[in-house]
Design goal:
36% of the residues are buried. By secondary structure, the protein is α+β, with helices and mostly antiparallel strands. The two termini are 44 Å apart.
Length: 346
């Protein structure tokens, strides 16, 4: 798939996390309006070539690939999923093997990078030799070009690259902080939503997605959210859904508890959901009913209906039955019996 060759005087290009702007596009208008998604899951002999070919075709010259060591290229095995929206790039990158660049400076002076390290260890070096390390659970914010970066095996990192003017970073070296703040959660939730929808968005939607991405990057890099910023509502609602989905069996799960974790007021969170046409409490109940239904129809089910009701935080089996019938049109007992007959028939 790729026309890359092993030449001593030319380092390999790989992975895109250095976000280079070394080349000047002959069509600057195209470079600033280009948008689209990127996805790759590669391993084996041609893994690097396949990755590089796909990246170049989807991300363009503005986010050209960083030069990697030959040992990295020969053992390249990675999963990557991201997108470009105008003059910004977001990428979720997971590597099975260690990564290391050849040390040549990459990137653009007017770019800011936000690295969110979920697993493993991420390192980069500034001009002058200062090295910065981010273990799992940390956010790194860095401005300008990079001299070198590397990652330990099995590292999972998300990186956002955007114009420095959008973030207005402070002077001095890279900033570091926790990656589990409400602001970072909102940023990653919005990025995931953009990645799913970008290829179907019209120009106005792309502009809105970009604007919200910039707003959330400012909040993540500087700490603090505008409590009344309407552009943040979709990302805020998505972050609340993500949190709720992981805590559906928790008896303390409530809109107020989610608001505290997201560092916003309950009213702000409720307004975000109101724009979607339903309260957050309704969403939580619906998700609990969906999970309870899955357990009802599971093959060789061992839990009783009363136990399922308790697991998914319904007050009692009668309360569960009424809620279930309202949503699915049948009682849990009837629904499970029908599912069992249909399974036997097949």
């Amino acid at each position: 798939m790729s026309d890359l060759r092993c030449m001593p005087e030319q380092p390999y290009e790989a992975c895109g996390l250095g976000a280079s702007d070394r080349c000047v596009s002959p069509n600057r208008r195209f470079a600033t309006t280009m948008s689209g998604t990127f996805s790759a899951d590669v391993s084996g002999a041609n893994a690097f070539s396949d990755f590089a070919h796909e990246w170049r075709s989807r991300m363009g010259e503005t986010f050209a690939l960083a030069p990697f060591r030959r040992t990295t290229v020969s053992g390249f095995s990675a999963r990557s999923r991201g997108f470009r929206v105008r003059d910004m790039m977001f990428n979720r990158f997971e590597t099975a093997a260690a990564l290391r660049t050849v040390g040549r400076r990459v990137g653009a002076d007017d770019h800011v990078r936000l690295w969110i390290v979920h697993r493993g260890t991420w390192r980069f070096e500034e001009t002058g030799g200062a090295e910065h390390t981010a273990p799992a659970g940390r956010l790194l914010v860095q401005t300008g070009r990079l001299s070198h970066f590397s990652a330990a095996p099995h590292t999972l990192v998300q990186v956002l690259v955007l114009p420095a003017a959008e973030v207005r970073p402070g002077r001095g070296g890279p900033a570091s902080g926790p990656a589990d703040t409400a602001e970072v959660r909102l940023l990653t939730a919005h990025a995931a939503m953009v990645g799913r929808m970008l290829d179907r968005l019209r120009p106005a939607g792309i502009d809105a997605a970009r604007g919200t991405l910039a707003e959330l990057a400012r909040a993540a890099a500087g700490g603090g959210l505008d409590d009344v910023e309407p552009l943040l509502s979709p990302a805020l609602a998505q972050a609340a859904r993500d949190l709720a989905g992981r805590r559906l069996t928790d008896s303390d799960l409530s809109p107020s508890a989610l608001a505290r974790e997201l560092n916003v007021s309950p009213r702000t969170l409720q307004r975000a959901f109101a724009r979607e046409g339903r309260p957050l409490s309704t969403y939580i109940r619906r998700r609990r009913l969906e999970e309870a239904r899955r357990e009802l129809v599971a093959p060789h089910r061992r839990m009783t209906i009363t136990e399922i009701a308790a697991r998914w935080q319904f007050a009692d089996s009668g309360h569960f039955a009424r809620a279930f019938r309202k949503y699915y049109g049948r009682t849990p007992t009837d629904y499970a019996a029908t599912a069992a007959r249909e399974t036997d028939a097949t």
